User: What shape does this take?
Amino acid sequence: MKRAVQGLLALVVVVIVATGGFVAATWAPDRNVDELKARWATPPSQFITVNGMQVHFRDEGPREDPLPIVLLHGTSASLHTWDGWTQELAKTRRVIRFDMPGFGLTGPAPDNDYRLEAYVRFVAGVADALGVQEFTLGGNSLGGRIAWGVAVAHPERVKKLVLVDAGGYPVHDNDMPIAFRIAQMPGLNRLMEVTLPRSMVEDSVRDVYGDPAKVTPELVDRYYDLTLRAGNRAALRERFAQQDLVTDYSAEIRTIRQPTLVLWGGRDRLLVPADAGRFGKDIPGSQVVLFETLGHVPHEEDPAATLVPVLQFL
Assistant: This one.
């Protein structure tokens, strides 16, 4: 009995030492938003107050455009994910993109509400603040789920819809990036608020690319730095606690009547390519384009190729 107790105590000591070593090696406290602005909010970045948040946004292209394009990023991403598309689109179109609550430089929501309904209200609020009444709306992943949610809630405002590997159907999380899994694990997700191995961020970004070799150190820097924005890690934990990944929203999706373009990466391991066909079937008259070699963020992985059908659609 005494030997068993000693063995147990020794195991506890090993666990404590190992945990302490991990925390010491990966210690990464929150970073102040002002510290991050120098690199990630260079011109044409601006900030506007919406729902008590200082929202980081970029508004580019001709202001006389009668139907601006609004682009919504996905989980743990930021407005920068649309850099490639915007560079081309803004030559002839007004393009508006912003960091969603809980992400990027916008940071956490004051009311701690990360339900889809709150995000839908937020998008409408940003459009109101910028004086934009009607627009084409595009979104990737979580941003795609929000985009079609806005189209359903405000059909008079959303004139066209572009869904890029969008959420809306039940998710199987066996291929979820490791950082997302940890954010859902009680205890470990609290530890993630003060630690963040850069290698884990890199692995998560590589997971959502069809060709991981395209992931550059600069790209990892962006995801890593903006994850460390004060409050973002706690917000990610809360968002996963509040989100619904198992409900099938087919009934709502079938009510969408806007002209819709569905883009999907054939190597998406997070939201399966079969969901592209489901969107195509559920939204009358929609167009579906599959990019066989791209992953969950095809617009970021290959902006030039993915933008071709978008320009035709617009």
Observations:
- The beta strands are 45-50, 53-60, 69-72, 95-98, 135-141, 158-166, 260-265, 287-291.
- The domain at 34-313 is CATH 3.40.50.1820 (Rossmann fold).
- The first helix runs from residue 2 to 26.
